[in-house]
Amino acid sequence: MQFHLNGFQPGDPEIFDAAERVTSHGATGPLPAEVDVLIVGCGPAGLNLAAQLSAFPDIKTCIVEQKPGRLLLGQADGIACRTMEMFQAYGFADRVLKEACWINETTFWKPDDANSAHIARSGRVQDVEDGLSEMPHVVLNQARVHDFFLDVMRRSAAKLEPHYARRLRDLEIDHAKDAGDHGVTVRFDRIDPAHEGEVETVRARYVVGCDGARSMVRKAIGRELHGDSANHAWGVMDVLAVTDFPDIRFKSLIQSAHDGSLLVIPREGGYLVRLYVELAKLEVGERVAGRNITVDEVIAKAQRILAPFTLQVKEVAWWSVYEIGQRITDKFDDVPEAEVATRLPRVFIAGDACHTHSPKAGQGMNVSMQD
Fold first, then answer.
1. HSE of 97, CA atoms in CB hemisphere, 13 A
2. Is 276 part of the annotated catalytic residue set?
3. Is 10 a catalytic site residue?
4. What distance in Å separates the CA atoms of residue 208 and residue 347, rounded to the nearest whole number?
5. Which residues are CB-contacts of 307 (< 8 A; sequence separation ≥ 6)?
6. E strand or H helix that includes residue 149
7. Which residue in 77, 211, 247, 352 is the catalytic one?
8. Span 338-345, mean pLDDT?
9. Of 107, 116, 302, 334, which one has the fewest beta carbons inside 10 Å?
10. Banded pLDDT at 271 (limits 50, 70, 90)
């Protein structure tokens, strides 16, 4: 399939009319007063859990998201072989295989021995080793992965839809109640314009926080992320580009002599390409937001790394800057270590809420879904 020729368009690329590709979904009306499982966050981890539970209508499940609607433009893109096997179990692996860009080979570039200011290809390998999986490693916009999970939920026995535009206000656990009772009380602020300022209360047997690296659920149960930062800033951008770099449609790892490294990831549709660009070393404790890095700076750095090849960026579909870091929590539920033998957990955290990874290795989305 070829698409994204004249710019990025969200939604199903098989639908010709762009206006019909993105339809408004989501549950209407207030949140239910009582549920068995309350999922906070509509990222990959939350949607995977919701899709699993939606097959069981006897388990009353509710999934809540702070954003006003479904994701249209994704952050992550790499889908590992094992994740593809999981999609096969859900029944939408074929759709992913059709739309995605298959990563079959990886090339390596380093400074040219004859002229270190230029790069030269140093290697080319098969991306997935023989015998690892019958499924390939592919690249697809995270938003489309969300769409496929939402379709599973919508068509399921429970006909589950997310409740959007709800921000978690607080969470309280009644430890006197049995695990079978609705012992967790969660309050949400409605942030949609028609109901802004309203507060909704849900009582749940279990709560799962899949609400990202700044998780309010994690904060509510007193957990913290611990880890290290490599003090390096990177930029990432999905672009429509004109270039004479010969491996632009391969996964390519490029190391320059003086300007750092660059990772090229071909995107679905045959035209978009993602570039991960090493930008600068940060001081200890410095945050990348303080650098006020612009997309033009990211493009200029990529152009220098690719020399002697040229890169003209015609459109930037999405871009961001981030810091390299790996963090994890000490526990993934609300039970203190001293009480593990005496009570069961009521509140859990999954995905980026309990472990964050630097991009470029596919760890974030893939690991979160498999939590």
1. 13
2. yes
3. no
4. 6
5. 117, 118, 119, 256
6. helix 142-154
7. 77
8. 90
9. 116
10. very high
